[in-house]
Amino acid sequence: MWLYLAALVGLYHLLRWYRERQVVSHLRDKYIFITGCDSGFGNLLARQLDLQGLRVLAACLTEKGAQQLRKQTSDRLETVILDVTKTESIAAATQWVKEHVGDRVLLVGLWGLVNNAGISIPTAPNEWLTKQDFMKILDVNLLGVIEVTLSLLPLVRKARGRVVNVSSVMGRISLFGGGYCVSKYGVEAFSDSLRRELSHFGVKVAMIEPGVFSTNITNMEAFSQSFRTAWDQASPEVKELYGETFVPTFLESLETLKPRWSKNLSLVTNCMEHALTACHPRTRYSCGWDAKLFYLPMSYMPTFLVDFMAYWSSPRPAQALQLDLRGLRVLAACLTEKGAQQLRKQTSDRLETVIPDVTRTESIAAATQWVEECLGAEIHLDFFYHPGKPPLSTNIPTGVFPILGTFTCQA
Question: Mind listing the GO molecular function terms for this protein (predicted)?
Answer without folding.
Answer: oxidoreductase activity
